[in-house]
Amino acid sequence: MWDFSNKTYLITGANSGIGKQLSLKLAALGGRLVLIDKNSDQMELIQKEFPRSVSYHILDLTEIEEIPGFMDSLRKQGFRLDGLVHCAGISPLMTLADFDFNLSLVTYKINLFSFMSFSRYFMDERYTNEGSSIVGISSSTSVYGGNRQYIYSSTKSAMNLFVKSTAKELATRKTRINTVMPSITNTEMVAKLRTQSDAIDMNVKYRQPLGIVQPDDVCNGILFLLSDLNKAISGTGLKINNGESY
Q1: How many domains, the chain?
Q2: Element (H or E) spanning 71, and its range?
Q3: CA–CA dist 189, 53 (Å, integer)
Q4: How many helices (H) and strands (E) in the chain?
Q5: Burial class of 234 by CB neighbour count within 10 A (0 to 12, 13 to 18, 19+)
Q6: Percentage above 70 pLDDT, the chain
Q7: Strands (E), 107-175
Q8: Strand partners, 85
Q9: H/E element holding 183?
Q10: Which structural domain, as residue segments, surrounds residue 48?
């Protein structure tokens, strides 16, 4: 069994979906967690279950300029991070005819720019420990592009390239950076998309022979990348695809 005792992790998007599931698993395995999201109801429940090791904070990731102050507050409270998992993300469906610049910018801020902003602190020993691990939640659509998901898909493709581009720089602190790339996963985000498109279940049937990916399977991949078992993987994307080929 993995042991994350004496390790501190920042998890974004911790109030729902993979972020919530991962927070529960990581706390149960001994991790000290700093959870952030723009909503707090589920984070509060997690904190009540693990009062000694979990703290949570309300933070709107569209307000990128708030991140430096937030990180300074963590440092002043004595936190030094051993890892980051960026689970926060939105996936608006948008045709070319319906292109919305403001919604596109919000999607980039949440899915990508905030991830970049948090990651840069792993080059600074005042905020983070050497030998840390960073994981971003990407998507299989970063490779093949989802129907009406060109904004979402492009943020995830850019995340993959950001990871590749920064791996060597972060290696100077023995810090690893990777993404996980789930295929269609049984989360609240997909449930919402299902109400807007009838293609979700068809895609699962024809593209993923082992069925829809479960959040727990994605969490296990993340835990591996965070753990001491992973010493040699950085700058890449781990496919969690239930047999989908692309």
Answers
A1: 1
A2: helix 67-76
A3: 28
A4: 10, 7
A5: buried
A6: 93
A7: 128-137
A8: 11, 135
A9: none
A10: 8-185+215-240
Residue 90 lies in a domain: yes
Check: pTM over 0.90? Answer yes or no: yes
Q: Which of these, 159, 186, 215, 213, lies nearest to 20 by C-alpha position?
A: 215
Tell me whether residue 25 is in a domain: yes
What CATH number is given to the structural domain containing 151? 3.40.50.720
Residue written as tokens 């429940």?
Answer: 45
Three-state secondary structure call for residue 103: helix
Rounded to whole angstroms, the Cα distance separating 32 from 181 reads 25
Determine the residue type at 241.
N
* DSSP-based three-state secondary structure for 80: coil
In a domain, 224, yes or no: yes
Phi, psi torsion values for 182, nearest 5 degrees: -70, 145
pLDDT tens readout for residues 18-63: 999 999 999 999 999 999 999 999 999 999 999 999 999 999 999 9
Structure tokens at 84: 């980051």
In this structure, what token pair is assigned to residue 34?
A: 């700093």
* 175 token code pair: 């810090």
Q: What 3-state DSSP class applies to 62?
A: coil
**Helix, strand, or coil (residue 58):** strand
Strand partners, 213: 185
What is the per-residue DSSP string for 188-211?
HHHHHHHHH-SHHHHHHHHH-TT-
